[in-house]
Amino acid sequence: MNRRSPRFVGVFAAAAITLGGQIAHASTDYDLASTEWNGLSDLANEAHTVGCLIESRSELDWAKLDGHDALWFVYPTKEVDPQNLRRFLISGGRAVIADDFGRAGAALDALEIHRFQDSESLPDNVPRFHESPGLPIATPSLLTALGRSTDSLVANHPSLLSTVHPATFQFFPGGGLVVEGKLGRGDFVALGDPSLLINNMMAIDGNRRFVRALVQESCRSVQDRIVVVSGPFRSVGEPVDTLPHGPVNMRSLSERVNGTLLGMNRALEEDWESYGNPLFAAAFATGLLLIFLRVFPARQKLTGHWLGAARSRQIAQTEDLGPALAEEVFARVQAVLPEVFSVRKLAPAAVAKEMRRHFSDEVGVLTGDLWREIRRSENPLFAALTGPISGRRLSRMHRLASDLFALIERN
């Protein structure tokens, strides 16, 4: 498929905006089969490349969803039921809510994300795409997989997102474009602009990279399907309490590394320098995968051997496993505190208080100590392949984590 140049896209998008709201959200918008400027055929191609099915539905039966379904709400004109969305996420579901002026406001509020619609009054220091007032540029503020996908996102007359949690992409502090979060065993991403997903905006390279990462993060290759719900859909049923076949808290480590390798393959096709030295990075990630798969068992019942203690201690001095250990800790603490919005964003004192309330003083003290060790590490959550952690600190983190989850099991 031939790409339109970014300059052409900017002019075309600006021209479309000036024609009014009727075109910005016309009845033919967000059609997966449409190759028009406002269609989603490029999104569908990205999903197919990753190995994920993608389909649109005019009726959403919450009761029939399972762990293979990733819900994408794209400018819904019927209200998204806040309670059903929360139940779906708590039970292990994944959702993307991409909406600026549609009917997802109450659902976003239920996730502690508040939408305000004054992007026209953005500060003058917010950059614009080709100096077009309606095309502000957001920059990453978190180094998640989405935040690392591109150094800028071009939006099209977005709503701004305000939340107590840090935004992944923002125009300014408190004015977010992309917000990620967890609820119970589920994950969600909120976008203040659904047009990030349309063909016209995906012709901008940074936007395409972001959408590609969004697909990879929400959909497990060859296992899942993306269900796009847009416009005046019909909603029936209620979510089940536990979604069958779903990921527990987050994708497995092997799936995350597979996604990284897939991104490197795509970079080789499009931009050899995108990953620095992709061949070295791919070899390193593959070796790291083999080590991790030997160290971490599948997340099942919490036991005193949850980290494969003997082997972890054996290689602690030679491999930087701190970031993976931190990810595992966050996932398992979230599993025992499903009512907490996102444990990974809690301060040590706050998570210690929650664990003390649910278990015991000793559990609270251990959790606080472990959290402080993780926070001292260099980006342990968001930069899994950067920043070595000393063997001594890793051994301490491992001991605290092993003691913590052994104690939880006894409680």
Helix count?
14
Helix content: 40-55%
Share of residues in strands: 15-25%
Low-confidence stretches: 1-24, 248-257, 266-276, 294-320, 378-387
CATH-defined fold name of the largest domain:
Rossmann fold
Total strands: the figure is: 13
Instruction: Assign an overall shape.
Output: globular
Radius of gyration, rounded? 21 Å
The strands making up the biggest β-sheet line up spatially as 1-12-3-4-11-10-9-6-7
Gap between N and C termini: 58 Å
Structural class category: alpha/beta
Total of domains = 2
Average pLDDT value? 77
CATH class of the largest domain: Alpha Beta
CATH structural architecture of the largest domain: 3-Layer(aba) Sandwich
Along the chain, the helix and strand elements come as HHHEEEHEHEEEEEEEHHEEHHHHHHH
* Assembly classification: single chain
Largest sheet: 9 strands, mixed
Mind explaining what this structure looks like?
The chain has helices at residues 6-18, 21-24, 41-50, 82-90, 105-110, 199-202, 205-218, 253-270, 278-295, 309-315, 322-336, 348-358, 361-376, 391-410; strands spanning 53-56, 59-61, 69-76, 94-98, 113-116, 137-140, 153-154, 160-163, 169-172, 175-183, 186-191, 225-231, 234-236. It is α/β, with parallel strands linked by helices and 411 residues long. It is globular and about 60 Å long. Helix 3 (41-50) packs across helix 7 (205-218), helix 12 (348-358) runs antiparallel to helix 13 (361-376) and helix 13 (361-376) packs antiparallel against helix 14. The relative contact order is 0.12. Strand 9 and strand 10 (175-183) form a beta hairpin. The protein folds into two domains: 6-236, 3-Layer(aba) Sandwich (Rossmann fold); 296-410. The longest helix has 20 residues, at 391-410. Helix content is 40%, strand content 15%.
